[in-house]
Amino acid sequence: MHKAFHLIIMCLFLGACASLITKPHEIPSPDRLFIHKNPGVGDYAVYFIKAGNFTHRYEVHEINGDLITVRYRMRYLDPDYKNLSPKEWYYRQVNLDGQVLKAWAETDTGERFSTPVARSGLIGSFEHLTKVDKLPEKPVVTKAGIFKVNNINAYIYRTDVGLISTNSSCMEYYSDDIPFRILKREMLHTADVGGFLKSMEYIKTLGESYLTENYLALYNRATQEDMGYQSTIVLMEYGYAK
Hints:
YmcC-like fold, eleven-stranded antiparallel beta sheet
């Protein structure tokens, strides 16, 4: 079970899963990638993914009017997995609202591969995007500093990868003071999803459980078949263009 969800987590952040599909760039890109205000070429943020022990780096690569090209890459920290780190950079062209308009992958040798962009109901899409009204009283502590939470979104992210059919329920904490705005992402990856996990009632319960740190409330509402794997992504480092 742990290894299966480890693969799902990798798919969630890369939009690719080399161990299940021979051509990772054919996996649809997520249809959302939230961008910060006044982005500059060279702005970056690095995140630490506890489940799997790897990092994920976002960079602003190019700006053309209201279109921003972001690239990102994953790197395993565990020596046993370093050879599995993707060789490609994954590129996403987004507008100022964070909608992904175009996607592709590019190798270090210059090879370029087109990547489809997810649409509603398909792998990679953000479903039931909901703003959480109640914000935590305490700031979020990260390796990059301590930040006030400006807003929170909850959503369900589809991560079906052929051999495993799952949804990932996500809570994202945002700050206006960092590139890409994401301070922390909490995720519950679930397999064999029941009706409760597809409902707006679940979105509400998800938000309440994370804000109160009462995770048992979330699990108690799910059926045994819904049980999955929880993971956390936290800001590790960031910087702005000079």
